[in-house]
UniProtKB/TrEMBL annotation:
Domain PA per the UniProt entry, residue ranges: 160-237
Keyword Transit peptide: no
Region ranges (Disordered): 256-282
Highest taxon, organism lineage: Eukaryota
Annotated family: Belongs to the peptidase M28 family. M28B subfamily.
Gene3D superfamilies reported for this sequence: 3.50.30.30, Transferrin receptor-like, dimerisation domain, Zn peptidases
Protein name: Uncharacterized protein
Signal peptide per UniProt: none
Length: 777
């Protein structure tokens, strides 16, 4: 049961708004303000300041290393270290931002006790895992009594003893493979290696298959050959993984079936005091789980040698055994996990510089919490870059520059446990964000290597590539950041987003164009000790980014990107990249459709689902409130009568392509109009009346750009994942991190559900048609 608050938020955040109907109203209010006051102040004033130059000059000084040192000096697990909250707020304030600390009351778990024993058939413990990473002389972060234990956030408490089975990566396919090989995991403890999919889903699949406990470990076979076996020394003596390193992390189910990110006790609504709490087990597991190192897994997996099956594709690169599945009836594991579950306060920190257009906002976000005392890569390379961007924008403000749009910085708490801080605030401010936010720019791991990585909503592709052309890549002979990117990618392709970081609520729940960016390790770079004590200041300053030059480049890029979006008169989106993307996603999707589906007849009922009928929105009090249609029936008659009688899937697909092509056409002319208006705006010496007219044309046009992506939300959300509203982009329900384009269609193909496929095809097709029409008007 959802309370009233939830209903309200869900209804407004989730519906296929007709944002464009708002426009006449805007124009009206525009004229109102024209006669009222102050219209002459807007955007006519020429400023002498070159904003790009000011921020780039500011970033000639590089303080990233200072901020990295500060953030990684003390533990800052989610919901802890209020000192760092205050310090972050003070830095924002120092750089001229108006600040807020926004608390949420969130259900989490903290480590208390753990134990792992290998037991032989006489009941004797023959190996006791230390469950602790080594202290390293060279790396001060690894020492002292304040390091954070190895544990998995939201892993259930329990003390289980059972035979155990090795399940490769623990993907859905791996568990199916085990079944096909008659390896039964019911009642067993399952050992899986990290990689391929989000760890919480490994635990979910283990649980779904009847396992009673899970061990997760990092296999050197997933370290791109940077291994001791290949002659690389272990950290801190070389780039290979330290053998005692452990990846902590959350085992929340994230984007899995039936679950949602955020506080698992408040799905879809904010965790403010007094919020109704629900059973969290839709989004978290019931079986205990522990993370261990490869050194710890060795004696355990060795006992499975020759037992059970040896399955192709299951082999890692540890020596001394052959990765048999087991079980071995002579050995059991005793796995004990104890955590303190409680509702805890978490703090987001915000900083804002108001622009002239206060209803057009750009948010730059990064989380602050880390699994470990350090966290120099995850997330505090991002935090260092965020502060550098704050400093640079602060310089610009100090120079007297007036920003065109409002710029807001967010420092989130609790990302690591399941995007807690960002999701809860996104749910709390859903209305405001959908009304005001133009774009969300995400930093998480800003630097863990030298390879530039982008993920984005396609409306931002154009500007992302443009800005990359303006900066030089630090390695000699490479050229610009753009040159580096296209060379590494083999082209200009920018992937779409899945999940695993704070952009999720913005893009997939609220329909706000989002970007995720950072420099990642490539195959030849030092192994990144993700969520391990070795993700420390020493590691980042000695191995990943000597001199913090990639931090500095990330700050320059993000600062320029922010200005590129905030300071251009016309919102700098390319809609044609979006519609082109859509065509190609549909194309790819259709190539997966089983041949025999194509000629299947479509019944009218299947083709038109009443409950999904067209929404009409209206403007109430300057606010868009979606409404149930009146006149739906006539619209529906029109729709169905168009569909004649004998339709097969193939004809419906053709029709969908037609609608997508027509959307593409509309976006082409719309983009041309954007360019034309921008050009007009830049024309000097226009007569006064022309400027006024242009002002309203631009305002109107910008609203279309700002709300474009909102049109691709579906009120009911995805199949079995109602929190995920976006019909084009989602995280894979079986992968967690990886993006899934056109999720409704692709999931229906995976599930061999013809009717559902048709329904989603209709939703996508109809949306494209509607948006195309709106862009034309
Ligand atoms: C940054 O760190 C350097 C080296 O520790 C120090 O000299 C400098 O004063 C610091 N600057 C700021 C602004 O904290
Ligand atoms: C179990 O381990 C103990 C201690 O090492 C040993 O004495 C005992 O013989 C072992 N039992 C079996 C069945 O191997
Ligand atoms: C941890 O170490 C610090 C300094 O080394 C010491 O002051 C503190 O008492 C220790 N805390 C605990 C709980 O041992
Ligand atoms: C966990 O179970 C094992 C085996 O039954 C037992 O020896 C151990 O004492 C238990 N640990 C705790 C903390 O209850
Ligand atoms: C798997 O093991 C469980 C528990 O021992 C048992 O109940 C179940 O029948 C087994 N499944 C198969 C397919 O053998
Ligand atoms: C288990 O131990 C017994 C007695 O030591 C032995 O006979 C048997 O082969 C062992 N089973 C396995 C699977 O190793
Ligand atoms: C849980 O939180 C409440 C309120 O913050 C606190 O009073 C209580 O001590 C906490 N319980 C545990 C076990 O930490
Ligand atoms: C569509 O997919 C086919 C192969 O399935 C490919 O040949 C064609 O180039 C694709 N078209 C687009 C626009 O992506
Ligand atoms: C798109 O535009 C092209 C060129 O103007 C035109 O030939 C084509 O029919 C249009 N397609 C759709 C689906 O509107």
């Amino acid at each position: 049961m959802f309370d009233e608050k939830y209903e309200r938020i869900d209804r407004r955040s989730g519906t296929n708004f007709h944002y464009f109907l708002l426009l006449p109203c805007l124009v009206f209010f525009g004229f109102y303000s024209l006669f009222n006051h102050s219209v002459f102040e807007f955007s006519f004033t020429e400023q002498d300041i070159d904003p790009k130059k000011v921020v780039l000059d500011a970033l000639e000084t590089n303080l990233a290393s200072n901020w990295s040192r500060k953030y990684t000096a003390e533990p800052h697990l989610a919901g802890t270290n209020y000192g760092l909250v205050k310090w972050t707020e003070e830095k924002f304030a120092e750089y001229g931002f108006d600040t807020t600390i926004d608390p949420y009351e969130i259900y989490v778990s903290y480590p208390n006790d753990h134990d792992l024993n290998l037991v032989n058939s006489s009941g004797d413990v023959i190996y006791k895992a230390p469950l602790k990473e080594d202290e390293l002389k060279k790396d001060p972060t690894t020492k002292g009594n304040d390091t954070i234990p190895t544990f998995l956030g939201y892993a259930a408490n329990g003390n289980v003893t059972a035979e155990y089975v090795y399940a490769n990566y623990g993907t859905r396919e791996d568990f199916d493979t085990l079944k096909e090989n008659n390896v039964n995991v019911t009642g067993k403890i399952v050992i899986v290696r990290y990689g391929k999919i989000f760890r919480g889903l490994k635990v979910k699949f283990a649980q779904d298959n009847g396992a009673i406990g899970v061990l997760l470990y990092s296999d050197p076979g997933d370290d791109h050959g940077i291994t001791p076996a290949n002659g690389y020394k272990q950290y801190p003596h070389g780039p290979a993984r330290q053998e005692s390193s452990v990846q902590r992390g959350s085992v929340q189910f994230l984007g899995g079936i039936g679950s949602a990110p955020g506080d698992p006790t408040t799905p879809g609504y904010p965790s403010k005091p007094g919020a109704e709490r629900q059973d969290p087990h839709a989004s978290i597991g019931k079986i205990p789980a522990l993370p261990i190192s490869y050194r710890e897994v060795k004696p355990i997996l060795a006992k499975l040698n020759g037992q059970g099956k040896k399955i192709k594709g299951f082999e890692g690169e540890l020596e001394g055994f052959k990765y048999y599945t087991g079980p071995n009836s002579n050995y059991t594991l005793n796995l004990y996990n104890d955590q303190i579950y409680n509702i805890t306060t978490m703090w987001n920190v915000y900083g804002e510089i108001k622009g002239e257009k206060t209803d057009e906002v750009i948010i730059i976000g990064n989380h602050r919490d880390a699994w470990i005392k350090g966290g120099a890569g995850d997330p505090n390379s991002g935090s260092a870059v965020l502060l550098e961007v704050a400093r640079a924008l602060g310089e610009l403000k100090k120079a007297g520059y007036k920003f065109k749009r409002t710029i807001v910085l967010h420092s989130y708490d609790g990302e690591e446990y399941g995007l807690l801080g960002s999701t809860e605030q996104g749910e709390f401010f859903a209305d405001k964000y959908q009304r005001e936010v133009i774009a969300y720019l995400n930093l998480d791991v800003a630097v863990s290597g030298k390879h530039f990585k982008l993920g984005s909503s396609p409306v931002l592709n154009k500007i992302l590539l443009e800005i990359a052309k303006e900066l030089v890549y630090p390695e000699e002979g490479v050229g610009s950041l753009y040159d580096h990117y296209v060379k590494a990618k083999g082209g200009e392709h920018i992937p779409t987003l899945g999940s695993g970081s704070d952009y999720t609520v913005y893009l997939e729940h609220l329909g706000i164009p989002s970007v995720d960016l950072g420099f990642q390790e490539g195959k030849e770079d030092p192994v990144y000790h993700y969520h391990s004590n070795y993700d420390s200041y020493y590691w980042i300053s000695e191995f990943a980014d000597k001199g913090f030059v990639y931090h500095n480049l990330a700050a320059k890029y993000l600062a320029l990107l922010t200005l590129g979006i905030s300071e251009r008169e016309l919102i700098n989106f390319g809609l044609q990249d979006y519609s082109k993307g859509l065509l190609s996603y549909l194309n790819t999707t259709i190539s997966r459709v089983p041949k025999e589906w194509l000629s299947k007849p479509i019944k009218l009922q299947e083709c038109y689902d009443w409950s999904d009928s067209v929404y009409i929105s209206k403007v109430t009090n300057g606010y868009y409130a979606p409404d149930r249609p009146h006149g739906t029936r006539s619209m529906m008659m029109k729709y169905t009568s168009n569909l004649k009688n004998k339709h097969t899937l193939e004809t419906v697909i053709d029709h969908a392509f037609e609608n997508l092509h027509s959307l593409h056409n509309s976006t082409l002319s719309f983009d041309a109009q954007t360019a034309y208006l921008q050009e007009k705006f830049e024309e000097p010496n226009q007569p006064f009346w022309q400027k006024i007219r242009l002002h309203y044309q631009i305002k109107y046009h910008n609203k279309y750009l700002q709300y474009f992506e909102r049109n691709f939300l579906h009120s009911k959300g995805l199949h079995e994942r109602p929190w995920f509203k976006h019909i084009i982009f989602a995280s894979g329900r079986y992968t967690g991190y990886a993006g899934q384009n056109l999720p409704g269609l692709n999931e229906a193909i995976e599930d061999e559900d013809f009717d559902r496929f048709v329904r989603w095809l209709k939703i996508v097709s109809k949306t494209a048609k509607r948006v195309s029409k709106r862009l034309h008007n």
